[in-house]
Design a protein that fits this description.
By secondary structure, the protein is mostly beta strands. The protein has one domain. The protein has two helices and 16 strands. Strands 1, 2, 3, 4, 5, 6, 7, 8, 9, 10, 13, 14, 15 and 16 form a 14-stranded mixed beta sheet that branches. Strands 11-12 form a two-stranded antiparallel ribbon. Strand 15 and strand 16 form a beta hairpin. The longest helix is centred in the middle third of the chain and has 11 residues. The radius of gyration is 16 Å and the shape is globular.
Length: 210
């Protein structure tokens, strides 16, 4: 198959059931032995071949029974209902990993996913403030999640910390924050207080470009 060139650049949220400082970023086991969470993106500049993806929003819900590298994951994509049929097809082609080099984000995700649930097409409200460590996603009847700064347990003041991964396949640098998640779609779970990462990414077939 001929690989089609593409790019996805924009606002990126990762939130999950683990403790602050996502263990996956440190090649450690999930806090509770399993991981449920989400990846979400507001594409500010994107394309797949000739298909323009600017303004498209999507979420990928995940459920893994153990460390992600051990696989057996269940995944469900949620794509904003405003995406056109060609944009939807383009996103799914990117997510398939078939147009990405080995060892890049979407290729790895395709390898560790065992069950792919039918996608959901619904309105997605996406709010994002990296510097303020605040974000929110709302998909009525499917997903509600909010990110806010980690609080100092003594003073209650906002606590700021960043993770830097010069060779990361997801991102290079992110703000670490706290998130609550209520997922009522095909993957159902609640997280009262878990990890969240906020960053800007630029993903390409060869991996993270910025």
């Amino acid at each position: 198959m001929t690989r089609i060139d593409w790019v996805l650049a924009g606002e990126w949220i990762k939130s999950c059931s683990c403790a602050f400082g996502c263990p996956c970023d440190f090649n450690a086991r999930p806090t509770q032995g399993w991981c449920r969470g989400l990846l979400a993106m507001n594409v500010t500049q994107g394309r797949f071949g000739d298909v323009v993806l600017d303004g498209v929003k999507f979420v990928v819900m995940v459920d893994f029974p153990g460390p992600l590298h051990e696989g057996h994951g269940t995944v469900q994509p949620i794509v904003d209902e405003g995406a056109t049929p060609s944009q939807r097809e383009a996103l799914f082609a990117i997510m398939s990993g078939e147009h990405s080099a080995e060892g890049t984000l979407f290729h790895i995700t395709s390898v560790i996913t065992e069950t792919m649930l039918d996608p959901i097409f619904a309105p997605i409200e996406f709010r994002f403030d990296r510097e303020g460590r605040r974000a929110a996603i709302s998909v009525p009847g499917v997903l509600e999640t909010e990110t806010q700064p980690i609080k100092n347990p003594v003073t209650g003041a906002p606590h700021r910390i960043q993770v830097v991964m010069p060779e990361g396949f997801e991102h290079r640098e992110a703000e670490v924050a706290s998130a609550w998640i209520s997922s009522t779609g095909g993957i159902r779970f609640d997280v009262p207080e878990g990890h969240s990462s906020l960053t800007h990414v630029r993903q390409t077939p060869e991996g993270v470009a910025a």
